[in-house]
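As practice, study what follows.
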Amino acid sequence: MASEKMNIWDLGKKINIKVKKEFIGLINKRIKEEFRTKRRVYTELIKFYHISFSTFKDRMKRSYKYFIDLEILLNLCKLLDIPLDELQNNILAYKTRRGHNYIENPKLPVEITPLFDMLVAHHIADGNVVNPKNGRKPYFSYRQYDEKYRRLYIKKIESVFGKLNHNNSYLNDKKITKIYFPVPCSELMFNLYNMDINSFKSKNARIPKEIFKKNWKHKLAFLLGIIIDDGSVDSSLIVIRLKNRELIKDLQKICIQLNYSTSFREAKDKLFCLYILSKSLNKLYQEYNCLLGEYPEVNLGYKGQKIKEFINRINKPKRYIKGNKEKLLLELSKGDLTVNELALKLNMTRQGARYLIKELAKEDKIKVKSVVKYATYKYGLR
């Protein structure tokens, strides 16, 4: 399946661009050849786009260093028979007319890769639509407290669109946890999948129907984005908990299309839970590594490491090892530990570690020593 590509003129209205001075030089040369004077070409231009003559002359100076209305250059190219691709290849940066964040060294046309759909997932999960007043266009913001995931989010933007230029130093100031998505990139995301600001509200959000028709890479990338923001790796399961039942059902449909075994449950706290079962983790992890090789930005970070650890435990020979009790007691002799900590140190499943703890508690060899975060017990020797 060939990736869809979107040109600069597909990104929406009221976009400003910076272009190479050589391209302005080409336009001036063609004006002289075709119309002789700027006044004559200006007379034709204002039939399509209103602008004062003084402003037009100013924008046509090779020394002009600022953003220019995209419509001016698009219409000039049409009047002067300059291919639009040539204009696009000479763009240095773009933004919305009143925007601050902009994309420089842009990747044009924009290719709708799996990373694009992963960004959609991030905006559904931990994103927010900023809807400013005074007629300005809505755009996304994304909150991420984990520094690695925050850096990976920026890398996804830059892999799809180009270098993100911003007022705040997102990468150097660890206190900044919210990133603002450029307005023209946001508008493309809205338009491509026929969505609006309500499409990203937690109670209304759905997976765009177009993603269900795409190949496995796009579907998995979307699923990975949700796992990063709203998923947890619990023992040998991946669990996604949301208040939005329909979105959970959409995610289950994606899993079914990817041939991952799942189960669905409504919890007592009015959350809906999707479980990706242990028997599918090998397949998911192999396909994730394949996608990771092509798009390093899909990295699952510590959650990916936890999946790898659980797979190693699942793939261990299923036989009882007599020395496990002694090994567990040895670890507890060094200090109090939780079930998860013991499972990690002994390279076993959490269920296996819990079983041994119950057996040793019956034998009166260990007991609960303390309660830590989220009512998790720490066990120690009697």
Q: What stands out?
A: The chain has 15 helices and 16 strands. The chain has a mean pLDDT of 90. The radius of gyration is 27 Å. The first strand starts at residue 5 and ends at 6.
